[in-house]
Write a structure and sequence with these properties.
The protein is α/β, with parallel strands linked by helices. The chain has 9 helices and 13 strands. It has a domain of about 210 residues: NAD(P)-binding Rossmann-like Domain (Rossmann fold, 3-Layer(aba) Sandwich).
Length: about 325
């Protein structure tokens, strides 16, 4: 692994108002870099981005690159981060509109090349692997079981070739489960913690699933490193590299709030396609970038609980 250079990044970021995207933008700025972030007019998630002299908001729509490409011409980016994706919620996993993201991804590769970027970094998903039910590395077969995962597979396959043809370094981070302050409602940890903070008994499965959770700031640091380190090429798993049972994770959150609160384990049946073991082998990412997660599950869940406490005022927005 080559030590990342000290030259600050000049990066274009799509999806920069999303959960992971906003954390990535914050990391780029904290490291002395500059970020041009594509945003939709009147986006409800703009509050995730704090004003900064080196933060440039560029209005536009992913489906219409001509609406924002001219604004980026003078920015002279070196790295293009593509995190934007239409339909990331569970309700959209099998929406046929997922395939529009394939065209968008190719357009973002083309735009990055036009802007003179040396590197392009996109975000994929563990859904590309399908329900492998074991610790998985990047050599595992890609057997997605929903249109979201299949579209991610197709988008990366085409983006990699297009980027190679244009002489760019291409990286693809397959994101496993992330969590932390600012996460949206509808995800297990957020919903369970909210119910516990309200003194309610959450209905749960038996909790035998073994899952890999990564704190959002650690995910952002990994993406930042992918924009810097040499050599970087190909797909990388992005997770904590460690998995714990859902039961133990929920019990940890409960105990940090109030150990006497009841938990409804076994009140919800497993889905027919329930993934029982979701764990990332991140050795390739660590080898190529020197990255390792620094936030323990206990620390991260504690921060999420503090963020969701009613007296703090919940400012989380959906992606």
């Amino acid at each position: 692994m080559t030590v990342p250079p000290q030259t600050p990044l000049r990066a274009v970021v799509t999806g920069g108002t999303g959960f992971i995207g906003a954390a990535l933008v914050a990391r780029i700025l904290a490291e002395g870099g500059a970020a041009a972030v594509l945003v939709r007019r009147n986006s409800p998630n703009l509050g995730r981005l704090r004003p900064h002299p080196s933060l440039h908001l560029v209005e536009g729509d992913l489906v219409d690159p001509a609406s924002f490409a001219p604004t980026l011409e003078g920015f002279a980016p070196t790295v293009f981060y593509h995190l934007g994706w239409l339909g990331v919620g569970n309700a959209f996993r099998n929406d046929p509109a997922q395939v529009a993201n394939i065209r968008i991804t190719l357009d973002m590769v083309e735009l990055a090349a036009r802007l003179g970027c040396a590197r392009w970094v996109g975000t994929g998903s563990q859904a590309e692997y399908g329900p492998v039910n074991r610790k998985v590395d990047e050599t595992a077969p890609l057997l997605p079981t929903n249109l979201y995962g299949a579209s991610k597979v197709a988008a990366w396959a085409l983006a990699r070739v297009a980027g190679d043809l244009r002489g760019m370094s291409m990286a693809w981070a397959r994101v496993f489960s992330t969590y932390g302050p600012g996460d949206a409602a509808g995800w297990m940890l957020v919903d369970v913690i909210r119910q516990l903070l309200e003194g309610r008994r959450p209905a749960l499965t038996l909790g035998e699933q073994v899952w890999d959770y990564l704190y959002v700031d650690d995910a952002a640091l990994a993406l930042y490193r992918l924009g810097l380190a040499e050599p970087v090429q190909g797909a990388y798993n992005l997770g904590s590299g460690q998995a714990r049972s859902i039961r133990s994770i929920v019990e940890l959150a409960r105990d940090l709030i109030d150990h006497t609160l009841p938990l409804g384990f076994g009140e919800v049946p497993y889905r027919p396609d329930q993934v029982m073991h979701l764990e990332a082998d991140v050795s390739k990412l660590t080898l190529h970038t020197g990255w390792q997660p620094t936030t323990s599950l206990e620390q991260g869940i504690g921060k999420l609980i503090d963020d969701l406490r009613p007296e703090k005022g919940n400012h989380a927005n959906g992606q």
